[in-house]
Amino acid sequence: MLLVKNLNVSVKNISILKKLNLEINPGEIHIIMGPNGSGKSTLSATLSGQQNYTVTNGEILFKNKNLLLLKPEERAGEGIFVAFQHPVDIPGISNQSFLHHAVNAVRKYRHQPLMDRFHFIQLVQKNMALLKMPNDLLNRSVNVGFSGGEKKRNDILQMMMLEPLLCILDETDSGLDIDAIKIVYNGLNILNDKIRSFVIITHYQRILEYIKPNYVHVLHKGHIVKSGDISLVKQLEEKGYGWLSG
Ligand code: ADP
Ligand code: MG
Ligand code: MG
Fold first, then answer.
1. Is 41 in the pocket of ligand 1 (CB under 6 A)?
2. Each residue of 22-40: pLDDT tens digit?
3. Would you say the CB of residue 79 lies under 6 angstroms from ligand 1?
């Protein structure tokens, strides 16, 4: 599904990612851990096509297409979804109209019939109930004045509505209380199936109580310095990152 080969990324002429390789097949869950500043958010920003993240070398193929030629909205249409570490506020645009517009933008790109207001409301309310989100969050401006937990749940709601193929979650579990973490991971598990893949960036071992990843990677100074299975998470919890820095 996703093939990242020898990727080098710079931000403002500073080299951040260096010769990064990553291969993700349909249905796989990959966890990425690593110290602060190692380049985890740079990777998610690059995959989503954010400005200012310049690919200076290497390639990214998504479903065998050159992702680097696609605009952010085209990447979303192809099925890439990123829940950013710091979700953005959009004053003046209601969550409902934002979500409805986003759903129909990807449907249009995928040549699927547009979703009318009635079916949209039905689906969004069903998903909000699963995420235990109060209804009034639909009528408020996107993320404006939302608590940290509400913003993260709103990201998962977007993910549920857009039905992406590759879901990238950048520290969606940071700063959440235990109940909110359960709700977020439950939403993720609802979407987890044989075709959809996940990249989950996290600092927390407790993710393993909810999610069974196929691979765990450690990103350090812009490289993946180690990949393994879930036992790597336990090793990191015990030993920290120092033993991997080489
Ligand atoms: P992580 O998510 O692993 O904590 P980041 O990808 O956020 O790491 O950051 C990696 C490095 O790149 C850091 O040194 C950070 O300061 C730098 N960086 C990332 N984004 C920007 C940006 N937009 N402008 C300047 N520096 C950036
Ligand atoms: Mg960080
Ligand atoms: Mg980060």
1. yes
2. 999 999 999 999 999 999 9
3. no
Q: What is the mean pLDDT of residues 101-122?
A: 97
Torsion of CA 37, 43, 48, 50, to 10 degrees: 50
Which-ligand-closest: CA of 43? Answer: 1
Give how far Cα 196 sits from Cα of 19, 41, 88, 166, 211, Å. 26, 21, 25, 6, 14
Whether the model clears a pTM of 0.80, i.e. scores above it, the answer is yes
How many Å lie between the centroid of ligand 3 and the Cα of residue 33? Answer: 10
The ipTM value here is 0.93
Helix, strand or coil, per DSSP, at residue 154: helix
Please write the tens of the pLDDT for every residue from 141-168. Answer: 999 999 988 999 999 999 999 999 999 9
In which domain, by residue range, is 160 found? 2-244
Domain tally, the chain = 1
Specify the residue with its C-alpha closest to ligand 1, atom 6: 39
Please report, as a single letter, which amino acid is at residue 169: L
Q: Tell me, what CATH number does 104's domain have?
A: 3.40.50.300
Atom 24, ligand 1: which residue's CA is nearest?
Answer: 11
pLDDT tens string 49-65? 999 999 999 999 999 99
Residue to probe by mutation, ligand 1, list 42, 51, 201, most atoms within 8 Å of CB = 42
